[in-house]
Amino acid sequence: MTTQQPVLNEHHKQEFPPMHTAEHILNGTMVKMFGCQRAVGAHVERTKSKLDYDFPRALTPQEIAQVEARVNAVIAADLPVTCTYATQAEVASRFDLGRLPEGATQAVRIVSVGDYDHCLCAGTHVEHTAQIGHFRISSTRYAAGRLRIVFRLDR
Ligand SMILES: [Zn+2]
């Protein structure tokens, strides 16, 4: 692995870095708490974002509160968000390369939120997690194996 920046696929989505970084932390939290996969669908916008998970049931109010608390603890810990670069072959055992976009470059970028979460991403992130603000789940919905979590960031 190297910290030299190779050429990556262009990232077309214009993202709001605090929201998008919160998306990473929520994904990492869901994987750790429930052993599920990272979100299978995402609508990340400036004021409100929605992530959809393959999930067997609805979350209880207690679980929703726990997810919020864990995400906010990561934000409050003010972890650095850092990037390292590698090739697809080097990271094949650590990450699901099936999630990369069609025609992805051999060079990939690993985005790390401290030691809490690592994923392959070409998006735009905050530099440290305290820049995200306060994370709040405004609603959840469950239907037919899909759990949707809607969240907002409060300053
Ligand atoms: Zn990202």
From TrEMBL:
GO terms for molecular function: alanine-tRNA ligase activity; aminoacyl-tRNA deacylase activity; ATP binding; metal ion binding. The keyword Metal-binding applies. Pfam families: tRNA_SAD. One of its GO terms (biological process) is alanyl-tRNA aminoacylation. It comes from the Bacteria. Keywords: Metal-binding, Zinc. Residues 108-150 form the Threonyl/alanyl tRNA synthetase SAD domain. This is Threonyl/alanyl tRNA synthetase SAD domain-containing protein.
